[in-house]
Design goal:
Layout (H helix, E strand, L loop, with lengths): L1 H4 L7 H4 L6 E3 L4 H11 L3 E5 L6 E6 H11 L7
Parallel strand pairs: 1-2
Antiparallel strand pairs: 2-3
Length: 78
């Protein structure tokens, strides 16, 4: 950020990304998304609409925990 503000050379996102991009279809189960995250040691995946291949959002481990908590009847506050 400091280099960018000073007009320095800015790397592209792929040069600083921690891992390859992982995605799940919007009709995948949360269990499948969780398995994929655990298998690859990541905390986020891109949600892709199967019908058109467009990214529609980012699913995080926090989102998954909140969904399971709501399903269990817990009150979840963002």
């Amino acid at each position: 950020m400091i280099a960018a503000a000073a007009g320095g050379i800015q790397p592209c996102a792929s040069e600083v990304a921690a891992t390859d991009v992982l995605s799940v279809s919007t009709d995948s189960s949360l269990r499948e998304a969780t398995r994929l995250m655990a298998e690859h040691g990541v905390s986020h995946v891109i949600a892709i609409e199967r019908a058109n291949g467009h990214a529609v959002g980012v699913l995080s481990t926090t989102d998954i925990v909140a969904a399971y908590a709501r399903a269990a009847g817990a009150e979840v506050t963002p």
